[in-house]
Amino acid sequence: MRKSILVTGGTKGIGRAILERFAQEDFDLITCARNEKELATLATDLQSKFPKNKVLAFRADLSRKDEVERFAKEISKEFTPDVIVNNTGVFLPGAIHDEPDGNFELMMQTNLYSAYYLIRAFVKDMMKRKSGYIFSMGSIAGTTAYPNGGSYAISKWAMLGMTKCLREELKPFDIKVTSILPGATYTASWEGVDLPIERFMKAEDVAACVWSAYNLSPQSVVEEITIRPQLGDI
């Protein structure tokens, strides 16, 4: 029986790399993003590369609870995903004491609440069948305080805490839960920075770590994966 993976924010960077890595293993693919044009391009590219895989791509702004719920309802018509990767995120630099009003709310809603609501939409079905895997895409900013991290860091610390709680709750149901904590990875958010690409991690390396964690035996789980550039943080 074919398995399916749901990756939020899958049009570029780490999200896209994870979709492609699991597509190589014959997973059906489900994703979402806010940009309809980028979603259409992604779906066409994935279907061309992996013609045997089902590809579902939905436009959704996961910073809004009603759109998370609508997205989950659409997916539920065909799937309860075997794997969920909460990858949607936004980074707005700033310090807690002087960042613009609204930054905190936007980043908490996008980076944390979206994952909370999406998990709640599917986890009871996973519990009934006693199988599934949930990955949360955190950040090293969720374990170490950085200048100019502000509300982004707060949201990622909260994401790590939520994932730890979820891991404890779901142990008895044979559902695995893993926090992925990447350092600087070369994605669209870093384009234009005056640093060589070689200084960054590759999105494909993060995707390889996700696949490796997923591929362990039922007796083992990787609770956290911290991945940093070889030369250290940027």
TrEMBL record:
It comes from the Bacteria. It is an enzyme of class 1 (oxidoreductase). CDD domains: SDR_c. Pfam families: adh_short (PF00106). Keywords: Oxidoreductase. This is SDR family oxidoreductase. Belongs to the short-chain dehydrogenases/reductases (SDR) family. The keyword ATP-binding does not apply. The keyword 4Fe-4S does not apply. Its EC number is 1.-.-.-. PROSITE patterns: ADH_SHORT (PS00061). GO terms for molecular function: oxidoreductase activity. PANTHER family: ALCOHOL DEHYDROGENASE (PTHR42901). InterPro entries: NAD(P)-bd_dom_sf, Sc_DH/Rdtase_CS, SDR_fam.
